[in-house]
């Protein structure tokens, strides 16, 4: 993901500026096609400054904001486009997609209904309407059964021992049901050759890693000696070959080469299953030296929209996706090194006064709420100016350097490490 500048305020178009605005839109479209969304947003914004009454410019910028997970800005632009031109169908599309990403499925469904009424033969519109309608019904069902005290785990319905590995399967297998370094090396080569791990092995890994994660604190606390190091990696998002490249450059995980992977392991990329099972395998192999923290994409809402749910169902089964969902709920939310460095996927909090002890007390084994400390740890972003502001993502907040300074002082920390945004140089010290 990339950072997004706040949309500039509209100004009346200058005389003779309409042609220039169209040229800027064309440039922005070219950047968008090249997946350079930051520059696409920049040029759409310039076009809007010259001609702020063109709904298409807002609709296009809304889509660029969606690509960078700036859902709040995307929703604002799509809403503006629809207000300007009630017949601009793409505006309804964009607004629906924004609301879907924000978990506002009923609002999204209303816009998809509008699109389907206007374009009854549009297959994509029908598919999105049906998908959204299915989620709305599913959420209603979940609310209806939420009162059940004993939610049955997928693990309870599995009979892994009865699963047979066919003779023709020549891929990696767990040794006596356990992950070994030999298994991990074979698994990475197997995945590199774009082959699928047997479902029995996948289930074994998931069941075992759930047990390991469920015993961890919400805030994992790690001690390093002065001579020791640990490598922190940001979002991998289903990019399996990038993961292999990290290990090639920095060495395989081991007890002397520990790692922290800071969330967003899945979605977007085509190899999310391969990435997450590799990471889970190393967690089982080195439980005290290989650490995994939850990101905002280790959640049902994101997985339904950005591909992981569909990928698991295509490669395995719906039941396995449900188990992945359960496992994700047990991922810790933060990690503290030597009591001085705090690591989380998103960032700091919407309110002052949050302590490390407050983080420890978070009941994490759930889907994240729309607000509060758990939401903030997964979703918030820093901003250059002091104070707090509304999030560009439409979830949580943006926090300034003064907020960071106060948090560090109150909790006797030196600094924080977070992910959640792409940095052109790979990382940024702010």
From TrEMBL:
InterPro entries with a match to the protein in the record: Calcineurin-like_PHP, Metallo-depent_PP-like, PP5_C, PPP_dom, PPP_phosphatase, Ser/Thr-sp_prot-phosphatase, TPR-like_helical_dom_sf, TPR_rpt
- Domain of life, per UniProt, equals Eukaryota
EC number(s) on record?
Answer: 3.1.3.16
* List of catalytic residues: 297
The Serine/threonine specific protein phosphatases domain covers 293-298
Q: Which reaction does it catalyse?
A: O-phospho-L-seryl-[protein] + H2O = L-seryl-[protein] + phosphate; O-phospho-L-threonyl-[protein] + H2O = L-threonyl-[protein] + phosphate
Keyword terms, alphabetized: Acetylation, Cell membrane, Cytoplasm, Hydrolase, Magnesium, Manganese, Membrane, Metal-binding, Nucleus, Protein phosphatase, Repeat, TPR repeat
Compartments it resides in: Cell membrane; Cytoplasm; Nucleus
Q: CDD domains from the xrefs?
A: MPP_PP5_C
Q: What class of enzyme is it?
A: hydrolase
Any one Gene Ontology MF annotation carried by this entry is: metal ion binding
Q: Which cofactor does it need?
A: Mg(2+); Mn(2+)
Coiled-coil spans in chain:
none
Q: Which GO terms describe its cellular component?
A: cytoplasm; nucleus; plasma membrane
Pfam families cross-referenced by the UniProt entry: Metallophos, PPP5, TPR_1
Sequence similarity: Belongs to the PPP phosphatase family. PP-5 (PP-T) subfamily.
Q: What is this protein called?
A: Serine/threonine-protein phosphatase
Q: Which organism is it from?
A: Bos taurus (Bovine)
């Amino acid at each position: 993901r990339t950072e997004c500048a706040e949309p500039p305020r509209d100004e009346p178009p200058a005389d003779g500026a309409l042609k220039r605005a169209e040229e800027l839109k064309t440039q922005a479209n070219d950047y968008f096609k090249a997946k350079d969304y930051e520059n696409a947003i920049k040029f759409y914004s310039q076009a809007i400054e010259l001609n702020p009454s063109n709904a298409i410019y807002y609709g296009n910028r809304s889509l660029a904001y969606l690509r960078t997970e700036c859902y709040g800005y995307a929703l604002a632009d799509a809403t503006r486009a629809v207000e300007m031109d009630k017949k601009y169908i793409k505006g309804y599309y964009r607004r629906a997609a924004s609301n879907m990403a924000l978990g506002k499925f009923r609002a999204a469904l209303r816009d998809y209904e509008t699109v389907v009424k206007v374009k009854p033969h549009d297959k994509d519109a029908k598919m999105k309407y049906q998908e959204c309608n299915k989620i709305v019904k599913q959420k209603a069902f979940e609310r209806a059964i939420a009162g059940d005290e004993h939610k049955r785990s997928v693990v309870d319905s599995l009979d892994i021992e009865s699963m047979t590995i066919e003779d023709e399967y020549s891929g990696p297998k767990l040794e006596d049901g356990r992950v070994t370094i030999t298994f991990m090396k074979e698994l990475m080569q197997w995945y590199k050759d774009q082959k699928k791990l047997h479902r029995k092995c996948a289930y074994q890994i998931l069941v075992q890693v759930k047990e390991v994660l469920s015993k961890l604190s919400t805030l994992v606390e790690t001690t390093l000696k002065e001579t020791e190091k640990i490598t922190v990696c940001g979002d991998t998002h289903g990019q399996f070959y990038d993961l292999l490249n990290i290990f090639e450059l920095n060495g395989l995980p081991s007890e002397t080469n520990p790692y922290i992977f800071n969330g967003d392991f899945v979605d977007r990329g085509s190899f999310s299953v391969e990435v997450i099972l590799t990471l889970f395998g190393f967690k089982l192999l080195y439980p005290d030296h290989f650490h995994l923290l939850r990101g905002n994409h280790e959640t049902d809402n994101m997985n339904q929209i950005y591909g992981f749910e569909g990928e698991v169902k295509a490669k395995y089964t719906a039941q396995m996706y449900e188990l992945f969902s359960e496992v994700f709920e047990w991922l810790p939310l933060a990690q503290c090194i030597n009591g001085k460095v705090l690591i989380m996927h998103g960032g700091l909090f919407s309110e002052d006064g949050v302590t490390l002890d407050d983080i420890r007390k978070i009941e994490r084994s759930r889907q994240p709420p729309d607000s509060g400390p758990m939401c903030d740890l997964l979703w918030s972003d820093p901003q250059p100016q002091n104070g707090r502001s509304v999030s560009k993502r439409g979830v949580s907040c943006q926090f300034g350097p003064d907020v960071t300074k106060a948090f560090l002082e109150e909790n006797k920390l030196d600094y924080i490490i977070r992910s959640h945004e792409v940095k052109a140089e790979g990382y940024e010290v702010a």
